[in-house]
C-alpha cells in the first residue's frame, strides 16, 4: 500500500472526490460508447493516426474547447468564492490550486492549441499547399501537446494540483514551500507540451517558406499566414528558454540542485527572469495570430482589401523583435534600480506604437467599406475598442514608477484579461465561426451566434471592468477572500454576475453547434462568406488533398482576383497527387512520453527508464522505416470533385 | 588546375588553425584575465563565422537571404537575452 499512498490528494475536499467519480464515469462512458457503436476502428484509422493538417487542426480546436470549459469552470469558482466577503466556498489552499490551474490551462492548453489549431487548418490552404512540410511531425506535435494537457489535468485528483500560480515563482515553487508533487506536474506537463509547440514552430516556418503556391511572393501572402510565420519564428526563439527554465526547476525540485534557491548561491528571482524571457514573447505568440484572423475577417466583411498591407507586415516584424525587449516589466518591483526599470518601461511603451498602427489599419479598412455585421465581424468590431482599453491600461502599468501602485492588484488582472479575452478569445471564436464551413461543410447559425456574442461581450465588461476599480482601491490578486470592511463586496458580486453571463454565452455556443449540425443547410458552396483569400477557392469541407490542381495566385486576395478580375487560379490539368501515409507512431510516442513524465512526477525511476528506452526505440524504428506515402489516382480526384460540385 | 584547387577552403582551414593557435596562447602565455577573455571572445566569434561561411556554405545557395535573416535574428535575440538578463539580475539589481 505504501507505493499507492503517494497518489493520494494531500488536501482533499468533497468537490475533488466528486470530480474523481465524474472523471471515472466519463472515461467509462466514452469507452463503452465507442465500443457499443463500434467506432474504435474508425477513430484509429481516420483520426488518431491521421497526418492530415485539417484533422489535426480540428483535434487541436476540440481539445482547446474542452480546456476552455475546464478553465472556465475554474474561473466561475473563483468569481463565486470572491462574490461576497468572507466566503467559505473554497479554502485558501483550494483557491491557490484553482487560480494556478486556471492560468496554466487558459494560456497553455486553451489559447495555444486554439491558435495552433487555426494555423493547422488555415495556413496550408491559404498558401495552396497539400499539407504542412512534415505531416508526421505535426501529428507528433499535437499528441505531445495532448499528453501534456492530460497530465496537467489529472493532477488535482492524483497526487495534488500545482498551487504556486501559473507563473510558478521560486522560492514558493520549491520543495520547501510547495511540498506536494503539484509543481512537478507543472514542470513536466509544460515540458512535453512545449516540445510539441517547438516542433510546430519549425514545421510551420518551413511550410510557409518552402511550400507556397506559384506566384505567392512573401509580400503576397494572406495576412493570417504572415502572422503565422512571425508567430512561429517567435515560438522557435522563445520556447527553448522555457524548456531550460523548466529543466532547471526540475533539477532543483527532484535532484537537489540549488539554481533557484535563496541560499547556497542560488538565484530565486532568476526563475522569474527566465519565465518572462519566454513569457512576454508568449503574449505575442498568442496575440499575433489573433491579429491575423481579424485582418482576414475585417477585410472580408468590409468588402475591401486590407488597408496598409506593408505596414501591417512591418509592424508585426517590429513586434516580433520588440517582444524580446520588454520582459522585465513583469517584475518592476522586484528590486531593480531606476535605470533598469526606465529601459524596460520605455521599450514597453514603444511596443504600443506598432500595435497602434495595426488598430488604425483595421479602422481604415472598414472606412467607406460595405460592412456586413456577421458573427465573425461582430467579434472583430467589438475587439477594437475593448482591446484598446486593455492596451491603454497596459501602458499605465508600463510606467514603472506608477506600477508600484498597481502591481499585484486586481487592476493587473483586469488589464491582462482585457487584452487576452477581446484579443485572443474573441479572435478564436470569430475564426472558428468564419472557418467553420471549411472544417465541416455547413455554417453555424447566425442568429444564435449573435446571442452568444452579446452574452460574452456584455458579460466580459461586467466581469472585468469592476476589477479596475477594486484594484485601484487596493484589492490584491490571488487573495481567496476579503473582509466586509474593505467595501470590495458589491463590485465583486457584479464581477461574478458578469462571469455568469459569459458562461451562458459559451453554453449558447455549444447549443449553436448542436443546432447547426441538425438544421444548417449543407449545400453552401466553396465560398459562403463572399471572401477573398485562397482557402475559399476549394471545397467546403476541404477534400483530403486540398486542391485538385496546384493553384496559381497573383495577390493576397487570390479568390477575389478570380471573382472580380477574371484571373484563373486553377490552370493546370488534374494529375495524380502524392500524399503522406497515416501513422500510429505519434500517438504511441506521446503515450510513452506521458508515462515517462508521470513516472518522473512521482519519482518512479523504473517507469522513467523503461519509457525512455521505449521512446528512443520508436525513434530508431522511425529512422529505418520506409514510408514513401501514396498516390491518389486521377480517376479518384475527378470522382471527388464531381461528387461535390466540381472544381470551380 | 586553378579551378580544381579549393583555394578558399584551404585558406579558410589555415585561417581557422591560426585562430585556434591564438586562442590557445591565452592558456600558455601569462596575461590578465580581461585580455584573455577578450582574445577568446573575438577569436571564437570569428571562428564561428569562418565555419559558417566557408565550411557550412552559408550564402552559396538560393535561400541565402533566409539563412542570413534567421542568423541575424537569432544573434539579436541571444544578445538581448543575455545582456538583458545581466542587466535585470546583476547590474541593475539593488
The strand count of chain B comes to 0
Structural shape of chain A:
globular
CATH topology of chain A: Cytochrome C Oxidase, Chain A
Total of DSSP H or I helical runs spanning 4+ residues of chain A: 20
Structural class by sheet pairing and helices of chain B: mainly alpha
Oligomerization category of the chains in this entry: heterodimer
List the helices and strands of chain B in order. HHH
On the 0 to 100 scale, the average pLDDT of chain B is 88
What is the helical fraction of chain A, as a range of percent?
55-70%
Looking at CATH, the homologous superfamily of chain A is Cytochrome c oxidase-like, subunit I domain
Work out the count of structural domains of chain A: 1
Largest sheet of chain B, if any?
A: none
- Secondary-structure-based class of chain A equals mainly alpha
Spans of at least 5 consecutive residues with low confidence of chain A: none
Helical proportion of chain B, percent range: over 70%
What portion of the residues of chain A fall into strands of 2 or more residues?
Answer: under 5%
How far apart are the first and last residues' alpha carbons of chain A, in Å? Answer: 67 Å
User: Overall mean pLDDT score of chain A?
Assistant: 94
Provide the domain count of chain B.
Answer: 2
Q: Which band does the percent of strand residues of chain B land in?
A: under 5%
Subcellular location (chain B): Cell membrane
Membrane topology (chain B): Multi-pass membrane protein
Function (chain B): Catalyzes quinol oxidation with the concomitant reduction of oxygen to water.
Organism (chain B): Oceanobacillus chungangensis
